């Protein structure tokens, strides 16, 4: 087993599962224990950084866009490690100034995401990050915001992908996930 496979296995076991959250019948995959463990968190950032540098070494990444809520927790650290900008994608009403907005259906309700219009210049290259890819609704909406401002999505990156939910089918760019379940 390679070192990256070993770390991915350790990260997978660090996830905590919560039944019937956020709604009955759903299982929530909580990655917060990874952030609470400095060694695992540093490994997470290092593994994403190595992947992105290997894949896009010649193609410049301009921004990491983190999806609320958990993409906001590790996205800035990854952006800092790569030496690129960070842009938050937030729920409605959390950002000042002119915002691009999109409303989408998530589980049993509608949500609205926003991103400041001037946060990402036209023609920029963006990697979107979040903790878990499930049905793909949040990630797809985030991608639509990036496209609204005329930027390019290079890739969607996740710590964990729940393969049985086929969320990748909703996404308009390749995905990378450290862990598949």
Written overview of the protein:
With 181 residues, the chain is an alpha/beta fold. The protein has one domain (3-180): 3-Layer(aba) Sandwich (Rossmann fold), CATH 3.40.50. It is built from five helices and nine strands. Helix 1 (3-14) packs across helix 3 and helix 3 (38-56) crosses helix 4 (71-82). The longest helix has 19 residues, at 38-56. The chain is globular, with a radius of gyration of 16 Å. The mean pLDDT is 91. It is found in: Cytoplasm. Pfam families: Pribosyltran. It catalyses: AMP + diphosphate = 5-phospho-alpha-D-ribose 1-diphosphate + adenine. Its main location: cytoplasm.
In short:
This protein is α/β, with parallel strands linked by helices and 181 residues long. It contains five helices and nine strands.
Features:
181 residues, alpha/beta, 7-stranded mixed β-sheet, two-stranded antiparallel ribbon, 5 helices
Topology:
Layout: H1 3-14, E1 16-19, E2 27-30, H2 32-35, H3 38-56, E3 63-67, H4 71-82, E4 85-91, E5 99-106, E6 109-116, E7 125-133, H5 137-148, E8 152-161, E9 175-180
Parallel strand pairs: 3-4, 3-7, 7-8, 8-9
Antiparallel strand pairs: 1-2, 4-6, 5-6
Helix pairs in contact: 1-3, 3-4
Keywords: Cytoplasm, Glycosyltransferase, Purine salvage, Transferase
Protein name: adenine phosphoribosyltransferase
GO cellular component, one term: cytoplasm
